[in-house]
Amino acid sequence: MFYTDGQLQYKVRVDSPNPLFAKHLQQAIGGVEGEIRVAMQYLFQAWSFRGPKRYKDLLLQTGTEELAHIEMLCHAVALNLEGSKEAVKEGVAAKSPIMQAMLGGMMPRQYLSSGMGALPVDADGMAFDMSNVYASGNAGADMYANVAAEATGRTLATRLYNLTDDPGMKDMLAFLIARDTMHQQQWLAVIEEIGGVNALPIPDSFPSDQENQDFNYTFLSTSTPDGPPPPEGRWSTGPSLDGRGQFSSEPARPLGGEPILPSPPPESMNQTAQIQSGGHGSPQLGSERPEQKGGGMLETVKDSMLEKAKDKLS
Amino acid sequence: MFYTDGQLQYKVRVDSPNPLFAKHLQQAIGGVEGEIRVAMQYLFQAWSFRGPKRYKDLLLQTGTEELAHIEMLCHAVALNLEGSKEAVKEGVAAKSPIMQAMLGGMMPRQYLSSGMGALPVDADGMAFDMSNVYASGNAGADMYANVAAEATGRTLATRLYNLTDDPGMKDMLAFLIARDTMHQQQWLAVIEEIGGVNALPIPDSFPSDQENQDFNYTFLSTSTPDGPPPPEGRWSTGPSLDGRGQFSSEPARPLGGEPILPSPPPESMNQTAQIQSGGHGSPQLGSERPEQKGGGMLETVKDSMLEKAKDKLS
Amino acid sequence: MFYTDGQLQYKVRVDSPNPLFAKHLQQAIGGVEGEIRVAMQYLFQAWSFRGPKRYKDLLLQTGTEELAHIEMLCHAVALNLEGSKEAVKEGVAAKSPIMQAMLGGMMPRQYLSSGMGALPVDADGMAFDMSNVYASGNAGADMYANVAAEATGRTLATRLYNLTDDPGMKDMLAFLIARDTMHQQQWLAVIEEIGGVNALPIPDSFPSDQENQDFNYTFLSTSTPDGPPPPEGRWSTGPSLDGRGQFSSEPARPLGGEPILPSPPPESMNQTAQIQSGGHGSPQLGSERPEQKGGGMLETVKDSMLEKAKDKLS
Amino acid sequence: MFYTDGQLQYKVRVDSPNPLFAKHLQQAIGGVEGEIRVAMQYLFQAWSFRGPKRYKDLLLQTGTEELAHIEMLCHAVALNLEGSKEAVKEGVAAKSPIMQAMLGGMMPRQYLSSGMGALPVDADGMAFDMSNVYASGNAGADMYANVAAEATGRTLATRLYNLTDDPGMKDMLAFLIARDTMHQQQWLAVIEEIGGVNALPIPDSFPSDQENQDFNYTFLSTSTPDGPPPPEGRWSTGPSLDGRGQFSSEPARPLGGEPILPSPPPESMNQTAQIQSGGHGSPQLGSERPEQKGGGMLETVKDSMLEKAKDKLS
Amino acid sequence: MFYTDGQLQYKVRVDSPNPLFAKHLQQAIGGVEGEIRVAMQYLFQAWSFRGPKRYKDLLLQTGTEELAHIEMLCHAVALNLEGSKEAVKEGVAAKSPIMQAMLGGMMPRQYLSSGMGALPVDADGMAFDMSNVYASGNAGADMYANVAAEATGRTLATRLYNLTDDPGMKDMLAFLIARDTMHQQQWLAVIEEIGGVNALPIPDSFPSDQENQDFNYTFLSTSTPDGPPPPEGRWSTGPSLDGRGQFSSEPARPLGGEPILPSPPPESMNQTAQIQSGGHGSPQLGSERPEQKGGGMLETVKDSMLEKAKDKLS
Amino acid sequence: MFYTDGQLQYKVRVDSPNPLFAKHLQQAIGGVEGEIRVAMQYLFQAWSFRGPKRYKDLLLQTGTEELAHIEMLCHAVALNLEGSKEAVKEGVAAKSPIMQAMLGGMMPRQYLSSGMGALPVDADGMAFDMSNVYASGNAGADMYANVAAEATGRTLATRLYNLTDDPGMKDMLAFLIARDTMHQQQWLAVIEEIGGVNALPIPDSFPSDQENQDFNYTFLSTSTPDGPPPPEGRWSTGPSLDGRGQFSSEPARPLGGEPILPSPPPESMNQTAQIQSGGHGSPQLGSERPEQKGGGMLETVKDSMLEKAKDKLS
Question: Is A194 part of any domain?
Answer without folding.
Answer: yes
